[in-house]
Amino acid sequence: MSAIRDLVCSTAVAKGHIGKSLSAIALAMATTIGAVSLSHAMTAEEVKARGYVIVATEDDYRPFEFMENGKSTGYDNELKDLVEKETGLELRQQIMPWAGILSGVTSGKFDMALSAVMVTAERKQSFDYTTPTAESATYYGVKKGSSIKTAEDLVGKVVGAETGSAFLAELKAFDAKLKASKGEGVKKIMEYHGYPEAYQDLAQGRIDAVVNTDLTLRALVKERGDVFELGHPIGEPGYKAWAVKKGNDGVLEVINDALLKIRESGEMYRLQEKWLGVSFEKMPLDVN
User: Fold this and answer.
1) 42 Cβ partners below 8 Å, 6+ apart?
2) Less packed terminus of the chain by CB within 10 Å, N or C?
3) CATH topology of domain 137-237
4) 156's torsion region: left (phi>0), alpha (psi -120 to 50) or beta?
């Protein structure tokens, strides 16, 4: 056996491949280990033992989450603080644009989207949700003094929404309804990587309306009522919640238990009043 080992080693050295072979083996092992760790859904006990949950939060989505004086704040961030206090876990947060959040959860980069994720039937195929954090309805907003007075007035207009958002999907569905009932839909749907850019275009008159949740549009109008007006709903009411990859039951259990206790204590409703201007005490406990 020793002779065979020596022969193999001497041959590899002679050909100058031993370093490359070991590197290839190490890379294969690392890849395998990484794949196993990503595919393994932890139990609640394993999550608690690890001591942290990796979460992604949107960078600019008032009043739910946004940056102020270099710090991420808003409704979801204050709710995050309560969950950390309740669980004793660290919610390791990455702040980023919306476009990368859900894909990061499905790939295993993040354990959870700690963001105002709209619950939809399509998303339920890929995600499981915590107890809802807010009620929501899809509205349009316009520039102050706009001729758009009803949802039907969006016919022939340029309307914006965020790429990858549930509100973009709602807008497309509403556009289809307009075409079926009026024979004509919106003139053009503009997609944006973030809502601040859409609001800027609306203020400058480059688009006619923006579609978003009523809560965010109300906050916008409250802050900049000299520029914007709230329109009317174009979709059915729904809920917002934090989301994990479907089957990630351990993370969901730990975070959801904490949120339910925060709801029961009334602290969630206090934060809703503070940040959203209304509380939603009649929300269902489960939206999955």
Assistant:
1) 50, 248, 250, 251
2) N
3) D-Maltodextrin-Binding Protein; domain 2 (3.40.190)
4) left
44-135+239-276 matches 137-237 in fold: yes
Give Cα 248 distance to the centre of its chain: 16
Give me 172's structure tokens. 């497309």
Q: How far apart are alpha carbons 220 and 197 in whole angstroms?
A: 13
The token duo for 274 is 């503070």
Phi-psi category of residue 251: left, alpha or beta, with phi > 0 → left and psi -120 to 50 → alpha: alpha
Contact 98, 61 (CB under 8 A): yes
- Mean pLDDT score, 259-285: 96
Contact 271, 281 (CB under 8 A): no
For residues 229 and 142, is the Cβ–Cβ distance under 8 A? yes
Domain boundaries, the chain: 44-135+239-276, 137-237
The tokens describing 134, both together, are 């807010």
Report the distance separating Cα 171 and Cα 230, nearest Å.
16
Give DSSP secondary structure letters for 165-231: -HHHHHHHHHHHHHHHHHS---SEEEEESSHHHHHHHHHTTSSSEEEEEHHHHHHHHHH-TTTEEEE
Contact 94, 50 (CB under 8 A): no
User: What would the pLDDT profile of 110-130 be if each residue is shown by its tens digit?
Assistant: 999 999 999 999 999 999 999
pLDDT at 221 over 50: yes
CATH architecture of 44-135+239-276: 3-Layer(aba) Sandwich (3.40)
Where do runs of H (alpha helix) occur along the chain? 2-15, 18-39, 44-50, 75-87, 101-107, 166-182, 195-203, 214-223, 249-265, 267-276
